Amino acid sequence: MRLEALRIPPRLHGFDGGGAEVFDLQIEGAQVVAVEPSRHPARGTLLSATVDAHVHLDKNYTVREVGPAEGNLFAAIQRIAVHRAGWTADGLRARMERALAEAWQAGTRAVRTHLDWIGTDAPASLAVFEELRARWHGRVALQFASLVPLDAYADAAAGERIAQTVKRAGGVLGAFVYRNEGIVHKLGRVFDLAQAHGLSIDFHVDEGLDADATGLRSIAQLTIARGLHGRVVCGHACSLAVQEDAFARDTLALCAQARLHLVALPTTNLYLQGAWDRTPVQRGITRIREAAAAGVRPSLATDNVQDSFYPYGGYDLVETFGLGVQMAHLAPADDWLDTITLNPARALGLEWDGRIAPGCPADLVLLAARDPYELLDARGRRRTVVRAGRILAKTE
Ligand SMILES: Nc1ccnc(=O)[nH]1
Q1: Is 309 touching ligand 1 by the criterion CB < 6 Å?
Q2: Is the C-beta atom of 56 inside 6 A of ligand 1?
Q3: Secondary structure E strands in 155-303
Q4: Is any ligand 1 atom within 6 A of the Cβ of residue 304?
Q5: What CATH number does the domain located at 50-340 have?
């Protein structure tokens, strides 16, 4: 198969483009075998298949039963707690399948989901997740992180049980961190367990606009102290945006030193953060631009879809990218397409980092956008998804 006249954003180049912007690709079998400058004007934009570093497959599409939390994270947590008690394998399977089918059609090749993990035993969602991870193998690579309230790790035996289960199931150790008492000590327990069991870590951290929420800084310091550079992912970090510039800069320098992976969640952050009873001025998004300037190239991810935390949305990362561009002034847009391709691929430790080059997998998303401006319009988002060298889906 030959793909002609496509812009490849420079950050996604795994080859020397020699200053050209538009390319023709030759695909043989499941591989790209040649990338050459094109003689034609661009008729679209080529990305590597997208990677979604942070979702919640266990609770998506439940908003019709639980209701939206109207801008209040802790209300969202309470609403889902009541609903969670009634979760069944069939219900979970249907919700997860629907999400994966949508992500796959949109051109996503890998997804990391958090699984609500209350108590020490594995949640009902884990067995369903493992079943779907096997069923979707070769289409969407699936990872999970345990979403455990940080305080649960204060109990050493409970922490050990959780870590053993996560290890057995091939997952990532996670926690929800927000202004906890004794936060450094409890975070230290998570790092102890990760080290003892050889696990990577993924935190929900500082998801709020209180300037004294400084979990991110503690996590970066612990990552350096424990030598877990590059093994730790942090989602949200909203409070970084409301802290003093100098303080935030120091935190980001530590994050860079720790090779921490930062994931911003535009839809949910916009919905849950800022005021509800008047026009919200604060956007809740973390300091994406300062992070990048400090050497921490961040990811954008989907987070919640049609649940109490975020009642709208779907699994289209190109759409989420468009929102991120507008929310955080990610301009020029072309320069930030690594937020849904390369950066999350590295955060998830995927074999292919998403750079397009001869020899790379032919897992690609061909967008109709003829220039960077069309990336954010409905026509420009229309796409042809190519997986393993074959056209999977086309939107007209
Ligand atoms: N933003 C979120 C925090 C905690 N749980 C969720 O599902 N989402």
Answers
A1: yes
A2: yes
A3: 173-177, 201-205, 232-236, 261-264, 299-300
A4: yes
A5: 3.20.20.140
- Each residue's pLDDT tens digit, 20-44: 999 999 999 999 999 999 999 999 9
Q: Whose CA is nearest to atom 5 of ligand 1?
A: 77
Name the segment(s) of the chain with CATH classification 2.30.40.10. 2-48+355-391
Q: Which helix (H) or strand (E) holds 289?
A: helix 288-293
pLDDT for the residue 396 = 61
CA atoms within 13 A on the CB side of 338: 20
The yes-or-no answer on residue 207 being catalytic is yes
Expressed in angstroms, the distance from the first to the final Cα of the chain is 20
Is the Cβ–Cβ distance between 48 and 56 less than 8 Å? no
**CA 176 – ligand 1 centroid, Å:** 9
Q: Cα 308 vs. chain centroid, distance in angstroms?
A: 19
Per the residue annotation, which of 97, 160, 207, 319 is the catalytic one? 207
Q: Ligand 1 within 6 A of 133 CB?
A: no
Residue 308 CB neighbour total at 10 angstroms: 27
> For 153-162, what is each residue's pLDDT tens digit?
999 999 999 9
Distances 184 to 148, 219, 254, 262 between C-alpha atoms, Å: 16, 8, 16, 19
Mean pLDDT of 120-128: 97
Nearest CA to ligand 1 atom 2: 309
* pLDDT of 137 over the 70 cut: yes
Domain 2-48+355-391 CATH superfamily:
Urease, subunit C, domain 1 (2.30.40.10)
Q: Boundaries of CATH 3.20.20.140 in the chain?
A: 50-340
Q: Ligand 1: which atom is nearest the Cα of residue 80?
A: 7
CA of 204 to the centre of ligand 1 (A): 8
Site to probe by mutation for ligand 1, drawn from 55, 73, 79 as the one with most ligand atoms within 8 Å of Cβ, is 73
